[in-house]
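note to self: dont lose this again. the chain is below, predicted strucutre after it. 413 aa total, dont forget to put it in the shared folder this time
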Amino acid sequence: MTSEDKTQQLRGASRREFLARMSVAGGALVGNSIVNAETVTDSAIKDPTKHQGSAPSSNGARSAHVKLERMPALNIVSLTPLEQLHGTLTPADLHFERHHGGIPEINPAQHQLLIHGMVEHPLKFSLADLQRLPAVTRTCFIECSGNLNTRATEKATVQMLCGLTSQSEWTGVALRTLLNEAGLKPGASWCLAEGSDAAVMTRSIPVEKLLDDAMVAYAQNGEPLRPAQGYPLRLLLPGWEGNTHIKWLRRLELSDSPFMTREETSKYTDPLKDDTARQFSVVMDARSVITSPTYPQLLEPGWHEIRGIAWSGRGRIRAVEVSVDGGKTWAEATLQGPVLPTAHTRFGLPWRWDGSPAEIASRAIDDTGYVQPTRRQLIDARGPGSQLYHLNPIMHWLVESDGRVLYKADPWT
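---
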């Protein structure tokens, strides 16, 4: 089959036809494998209508048949199982973690947020004080700037490759509300945000960002922040790299220049090929990742939906294109609404796999016109030493003739 034939299959595929064929086939994609309906017998299932169910409980729990877990690594991170989730919101207990000094235990009754420096009225806020102020809620992703495993093998899951991004609904107080209360002095253009962890994590944030869409968050997905996500307070900077979203927030100091902290000098700068480095490269570029089919799924010939998520720190996702011939030709996927700014967006495209080898990939385009680059484009622009931060290449998956799906693990050279 030629590349044009494969692309035509994508463009001409009817969603109605796709669903009908899946129904007739009597099969469904469950987890990481294809299960045929006829393999399930009545004798293998306990009839729930013949037994009294369990009683209500104080806290809900997942089914014993569902196993969803983060993947801890290096004692500093845990990764979200993106390929096992649906929709765009990440359950709070599966939100990725990145810690620089462990997770502190903080008594909210003793915790305060100090705003001082170049302000007219230095202020202290308790959690209760902040919760009395007008609340704002927004849905957005957070992504670690080092969210690509460049050493991954062909048997890598999406979680292993780029599980350092998650999305939640955040509630808190707009930073501009607090800064208006404190009163900015003329010339105040930067702010030092400081956390209460053992690393005393600090980052310099432009006041322009704080007055735009930043917030001090105290709730995630309707409940108080969890300790791993910054309880009782964290800074939220939509679209910016994760390390700037200071957790366990305790201090905001206003100044007329950046503070050049450890985390923005020796860390979180991007080496370039001309022996220079990008600094304060905090906005996350547009990116997409296919979540199905991926390793370790095993496909059978027939209809499948190529699906995944896309996001951009610069605004909304305008389009996602999918290729089944290694990037020679592309077809536009369907975006699932609502398409929000600085938020994960689901995409999908029906695909009829004929059993021959294929190479699938996706690329995101945001509303600034930015197109997700190839691995080669990134290396040519930044040099092979550009790894570790802000790597958002198009990712490819190989579908073998026996139905195996493997990550195309090209070397970063």
